[in-house]
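Pair request: fold both.
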Amino acid sequence: ISALGLKESKINNIIAPSHANDIGTRLILFPKHLNNMIQDDEIRTKAAEIAKKYNIVVIVPSHDHASLWRRYTENIVDKDNIWDAVNRLKTEHVGLVVFVNRYDGIDLPDDACRMLIIDSLPPLNKEYTKYVHSICMDSKHVVRAQMQRIEQGMGRGVRSSTDSCCIVFMGSNLADVLIRHKGVNFFSNATRVQYELSKQLWGLLKEEKNEPSIDDIFEIASYSLQQQPVWIQQCKAALADITYSTEPQIDATES
């Protein structure tokens, strides 16, 4: 609207897919939410262990953050080696690969990425959003922008209706936005349904163990990694009736 100079009154209907059942299955894990005593290095260690069998992609916001993974992998990817890394992931078992600030523009279908880890909040990439963040860190505008980038990143590992990927959230700042600032509410309808379905598995685990260990939590990942039919069917059933809204949601502060 702002870029094209359109009038709000003329935006009556948004073009959208008729259903949201074509995005594949995603199981979401949030270790810090299940047990706030779990440390980020425990997640990194577990990821490195699982990466011996599966390709795991980590998205970090900066080179400084990527350095925290160097003791677990030498595969640090930025703009200089990105396409070589993507091609390798699509054709062979690479293991644990860390992408620096790459939340869009790459496709990692099927075995190229069976687990995708979003490590910490993505950087803000618009000047207006940066300004709003500087004066009001919990602004809905800022939270929505952050969650849209996170959801973009989540989409790197699921590229078709038959694809399957386990998503892992980590980092205290990401946990803060997701939970305290209710960032989950800014996910698309389909992603929110997958998040709620994953929470049901978390609930079953919490019933058994009030403070589950890192091993307990990542045991849930096997539903996705092994593409267990019961989990795949539940995901597809949950998405079957989900549609995208065609109602415009206009933020006057951005116009």
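--- second member of the pair ---
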Amino acid sequence: LLSVGEDESPVFNLENITQYRLHKVMRQKGQNPIIDICTVLRDCIISGKYLSNMELKELFLENLGEHIERVSDNKALLERYFASEYPHNTNSVIAYKNKSVSLLNSKIRNQLIDSDECFTTGEELIFLSAMVKDDIVVIANNEVVTIQSLKKIKDNDLDIEYWKIIDDQDRLFRVVDLFSKEDFDYELIELAKKAKKAVGMEKSALWGRFFELKETFQDVAYTYAGT
């Protein structure tokens, strides 16, 4: 893909490189109405002629009118679509910013689940990056999993708490407890700072520790809202 704002990418000028042009829609299959929207937007990018805000709104309403509703009041949203007795797993909230998604996920979960813990059995989670073991993708990026069983563990060396989780396909993964996330992220930042300043064997060891720690725990989110 081209870098943002660039007219060409040097990789396409390399010799002895086989090039392919992708033309078949694969991600959205069948009669998914998103295909029609994506096609219009792709043609806009190719032609350089973009839709106005009003035209964009009409495009989405025409194709997704029966599936999507714009709600400006968060309280009404929660009461209407995420009441405890409502089949909430059939609905998702779409927001523009990750910060909004995180806030909505917390609000919706607090309304639906009466628990002081950040995870519970039967709950769905979405992976924000792939879980890879021995160069094999075990759980893909954006894959949704359901918690089958879980156990909270205290790591005295790192001074954090984390969850050992098994999903409904018997895949094991670990997630840092939300209340320990800030401390864990700080540890990674400090390790990276030290690694950048170090040299030789020490540099390799610090980066090794950084990636070992980072890949031990998975980055996940709740599924009630997304961008």
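Observation on the second member. The chain has a mean pLDDT of 88.
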